[in-house]
Design a protein that fits this description.
The chain is mainly β. The chain contains one helix and 28 strands.
Length: 393
């Protein structure tokens, strides 16, 4: 029984008899391949958290699960949190469960090529020190990126969902769903527009997430000169799988023409954008928030702040010491504030003002995290200044 060159579909020989079984196998193979292509086009990816990539160790790490949402089947295929080693030129692929009937877990595999099967889907490819993902993201070595956020490969997008209602005169309540969210993000805007202005009563529009009202816009008698209203500025975080709906409540509603009026509700959703409802605060010594770097970043598209435990940094203390005679004499202690994390440090010093030639030394013995001992070969004058620079080693 021959097979096609690329897709390996079976087909009957010219003179095969009986030929129907082989023909049926060919049609089934073509149907499976066609379905796979259709499902691949409809799969939406999300998750992963802050992904890190180190080309030196060939390691790609993701702290949260990746989720592939099968729109046709309505179920999730999840790659658990973890890491994988990928060499230059290799690809990462997953073996999908086609037309799943429940949520399933799948694995990711590095290889030199993707298997020629209906279930295999390429996820990423490494070229040099860069990893490129199928949804358009890329990550450079040394970076930590959320692949679906504003700072992570430019995958964020703001899109609009719309619902239309007929608002009868008088009082009524109506509700419609906008569907489930398939990526994490935030609702960033809510507006409502009536075909005729309100003359009496009110029309209230409530945005709900999983049945809980999060944003509200109201059209009332004050809207006699226009027919559109926008909710107060705000941000509503939403997660993958959240149900978003619109509720319309009319109270003693009437309009200039005494006719039922149509209502259009627009919802702006930012995918990959997660902002606290109160907005991002300025950073302080007790609050995480917006800050400014001390120097321009090497890579403007991905600025990196350095942690206080970064091995590239050393612990430093700068101390200005003023001599007060006669208490100092030729042997005295200097206090380190705040204290060092370890007594393993060196002390550099400069004499700023001295009345006579004096040699200053700081012995290794006796250095503590909170102070060090200073010796001189002569008494310093009252008011003399010494600059000390304490550097951890």
């Amino acid at each position: 029984m021959p097979n096609s060159d690329k897709m390996l579909w079976p087909y009957p020989n010219k003179d095969t008899d009986p030929w129907f079984d082989i023909f049926e196998s060919m049609v089934t193979a073509m149907d499976s391949s066609g379905y796979s292509a259709r499902e691949d086009r409809s799969i939406i990816w999300s998750g992963g958290g802050d992904v890190t990539w180190d080309a030196g160790s060939n390691t790609l790490t993701w702290p949260l699960p990746f989720v592939a949402f099968s729109m046709i089947a309505g179920f999730k295929l999840t790659i658990p949190a973890g890491s994988v080693t990928i060499a230059d030129g290799e690809v990462l692929y997953v073996t999908l469960t086609r037309s799943p009937t429940t949520n399933v877990s799948i694995g990711v595999v590095p290889a030199t090529s993707v298997p020629n099967t209906n279930e295999a889907m390429a996820v990423a490819v490494r070229t040099g020190t860069t990893v490129y993902f199928r949804w358009g993201s890329k990550i450079e070595t040394g970076e930590t990126l959320n692949l679906f956020a504003v700072s992570g490969g430019g995958n964020s997008d703001v899109y609009e969902r719309e619902a239309t209602f007929g608002v009868p005169l008088g009082s009524s309540t109506d509700e419609a769903t906008l569907g489930r969210i398939i990526v994490f993000g935030s609702v960033v805007g809510l507006s409502a527009e009536l075909t005729r202005p309100v003359t009496t009563g009110t029309v209230t529009v409530n945005l709900k997430v999983n049945g809980i009202t999060k944003m509200t816009v109201q059209l009332s008698l004050t809207n006699t000169t226009f027919i559109q209203a926008t909710a107060a500025p705000g941000v509503v975080p939403i997660a993958s799988g959240d149900q978003v709906s619109i509720q319309v409540v009319a109270s003693s509603y009437s309009n200039a023409d005494s006719l039922d009026s149509g209502l259009t509700v627009n919802v702006l959703i930012g995918s990959g954008i997660t902002i606290p409802p109160s907005g991002i605060p300025d950073a302080s010594d007790s609050t995480e928030g917006i800050t400014r770097l001390s120097v321009a970043p090497v890579l403007p598209s991905s600025p990196i702040a350095v942690g206080n435990n970064d091995p590239r940094l050393s612990e430093n203390r700068r101390i200005v010491y003023t001599v007060t005679q006669p208490a100092d004499g030729t042997d005295f202690f200097v206090t380190i504030t705040p204290t060092m994390s370890s007594p393993n440090y060196i002390v550099l010093h400069t004499l700023a003002t001295v009345s006579v030639h004096v040699t200053v030394s700081v012995p290794l013995a006796g250095r503590a995290v909170g102070q060090f001992n200073v010796k001189t070969n002569a008494a310093l004058g009252n008011g003399d200044t010494i600059y000390f620079h304490v550097v951890g080693i």
